[in-house]
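Shift notes (night). Ran Nuclear prelamin A recognition factor while the centrifuge was going.
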Amino acid sequence: MIYHVVVAPCFDKKLEAVREEFYNSLLETRDVDCVLTSKEIYRLMQKRKISVEELGSVPLDHLLGEGGDVALMRHDGRGSEGFLEHVFKHTAKEVFAIDVQEITYKTLRNRDFQEVTLEKDGETLLQFAAIYGFRNIQTLVHRMKKGRLPYQLVEVLSCPGGKPQSCRSGPCPHAAGS
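Came back to this:
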């Protein structure tokens, strides 16, 4: 039996884990069995008087093979740890042979609704969006329903600014009011 535990900075993962679409009625299982937030892990460690300094070190898992793709494992980024930036740069290089060094975000509706575009000779080759906060997610869903979504990838986070740390101290204060 496998018991799948997720450690996440945001409480929204707890809500996502219990959604019906993540339940397999045939196998009577969920995609995720338990979600612990970073703060809950911290509190457990405090309660049991466990200090990080006292823990022994263990070798890193090499999920991507020995050595792996260093750019995939370590990259600068925003709220999603740089996922959008990594995929954008990788796609530009592998598909279009363009080496993108720096990504420029274009603000559309507000600072939580931005896009990144790769152009060559006036032609748009790639168009990604970073959409954060519930209001902007509603706008995204509305555009999807109307078939007006020009993006190959959309990074979506419920926390405003794509910054899960705004939710680390408890349930996201923006979830109910947005």
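Confidence is low (pLDDT under 50) at residues 68-77, 171-178. The longest helix spans residues 83-96.
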